[in-house]
Amino acid sequence: MPGLNFLSGNETADMKQNLTIALSKGRILKDTLPLLEAADIIPAEDIFSSRKLIFDTNHDNIKLVVIRATDVPTYVEHGGADMGVAGKDVLLEYGAKGLYEPLDLDIARCRLMVAGMKDAGEVEGRMTVATKFVNITKEFFARQGRQVDIIKLYGAMELAPIMGLADRIVDIVDTGNTLRANGLVPMEDICYVSSRLVVGKAALKMKHRQIQPIIEQLAAAVDARKERSEQI
Ligand code: ATP
Ligand code: PRP
């Protein structure tokens, strides 16, 4: 029947729209690729040994871009990519309103914490906090009615209290080894962090039929990974 043919032709075209997925380079990438593979999205070449920024996949309409973690929400919110993978820390700090967060990928798990020198006493007066998470830090202390001065750093936050730059830091803590190695201790818990799948609002509307099965396959891969790790 011509009507049915017309419908299925449209569906095929819809399923074939170009789709770009933004991946955080760095520590999240190696845990992201097996999840994508389980959703049948496989880069056409080895990402780790390439200087390329855009990668073809086993689907001629799906591309991967590999960028700094902090740039992922920007790309997805503004439509430079349709979906992405980024840490909850990065997403909270960015504060995007134009992003859906349909799936916790359960990788790169850690906590955001306030930390300070082991022997640091109470801070009298205004506290100085060094961090790369300026917005999260502002909000955390504001919610407690505490006024703090924030110093923005881009890495090695643990050094700041040692050098007398700040009373406290706000940073990622996983094993606690970096804090311990530098004579710091965790003091207050801010939130749990793991990597999330994010989808742009426009992309979810325009490419829903293409994106939904990917979300479902990734969710199944996350569950399978959890089951495997519970068995060990
Ligand atoms: P950039 O290099 O762009 O400044 P970054 O150094 O924060 O970013 P990564 O170290 O690759 O990038 O970390 C990416 C994400 O991994 C973080 O946003 C956070 O969600 C998570 N993460 C960071 N450190 C740890 C850790 N020690 N253990 C587990 N997860 C972590
Ligand atoms: C992250 C974070 C802490 C460390 C925490 O640093 O900024 O320094 O990991 O992990 P741990 O509790 O297991 O020691 P990263 O290694 O990414 O270095 P950078 O952010 O300073 O580049």
From TrEMBL:
It comes from the Bacteria. Keywords: Amino-acid biosynthesis, ATP-binding, Cytoplasm, Glycosyltransferase, Histidine biosynthesis, Nucleotide-binding, Transferase. The keyword rRNA processing does not apply. GO terms for biological process: L-histidine biosynthetic process. It catalyses: 1-(5-phospho-beta-D-ribosyl)-ATP + diphosphate = 5-phospho-alpha-D-ribose 1-diphosphate + ATP. One of its GO terms (molecular function) is ATP binding. GO terms for cellular component: cytoplasm. This is ATP phosphoribosyltransferase.
